[in-house]
Amino acid sequence: MTIYYSLTFLLLASEMVTFTLLVVPFPYAVRKRVFGFLSDSPIVAKIAYGVKISFIFVGILFFDALQRMFRITAEADIAKQGQQGMGDVRTETSFAARKFYAQRNVYLTGFTLFLSLVLTRTFAITLELIHSQEEYAKLKKTGSSGGSGKDYDALKSKYDTQTAEYNRLADKYNKLSGSKADKKKD
C-alpha cells in the first residue's frame, strides 16, 4: 500500500477511535468538560482545520481510486471478451489483483469520508444534547426555587374565576332561553 493510502488508513483508524470515545456513555460532568474543551480550545480548532484539509485530499484520492477501479474493470472485461475464456492464468490473476487493490482503495477512502461526516454530525448532536441538559437543569432549578408554587396558586385562582364566570353565564343563558344547560360541577 502506498504511503498516502497508509495515511488514509491511519486517519480512518483514528476516526473509529474518536467515534468510539464520542459515544461512550460518560457521566454528564465529564462529558460536559470534555466537549466544552473540544469546542472552545484554539488548539483543537487548528487541528480540526488541518484534518478538514486532509479530507479534501482524501476526497481527491476517492475519486481517483473510483476512476481507476472503473478503468481496471473495463480492461478486465475487454480482456475476457478478447480471450473467450482461454486467457492465461497469470493475466487473470494480475487483473484480479489490480481490481482488488482498486476496490480496496475505493472502500478505504469512501469509508474515511463517510465516517468524517458521521463524526461531525455525532459531535454536533452531542453538543446540542449537553446544551439541552444545561437548559433543563436551569429550568428545573428555577422551577423548584418556589416559583412553581406561586404559579400553581395563580393558575388555580384563574381557574376558579373562570369557572365561576362560566357558571354565571350558563345560569343567565338558562333563564333567558328557558332550557337547562348542563354545567360541569366539580
From TrEMBL:
Species this protein is from: Collybiopsis luxurians FD-317 M1
Subcellular location per the Swiss-Prot or TrEMBL entry: Endoplasmic reticulum membrane; Membrane
GO biological process, one term: protein localization to endoplasmic reticulum exit site
Family (UniProt): Belongs to the BCAP29/BCAP31 family.
Record field: transmembrane: 7-28, 43-63, 106-124
Signal peptide, first to last residue: none
Record carries keyword Transmembrane helix: yes
GO cellular component: a single term: endoplasmic reticulum membrane
Alphabetized InterPro entries for the sequence: BAP29/BAP31 (IPR008417), BAP29/BAP31_N (IPR040463)
Stored Pfam families: Bap31
Listed name of the protein: Endoplasmic reticulum transmembrane protein
Key words, A-Z: Endoplasmic reticulum, ER-Golgi transport, Membrane, Protein transport, Transmembrane, Transmembrane helix, Transport
Function: May play a role in anterograde transport of membrane proteins from the endoplasmic reticulum to the Golgi.
Membrane-protein topology: Multi-pass membrane protein
Domain BAP29/BAP31 transmembrane: 1-138
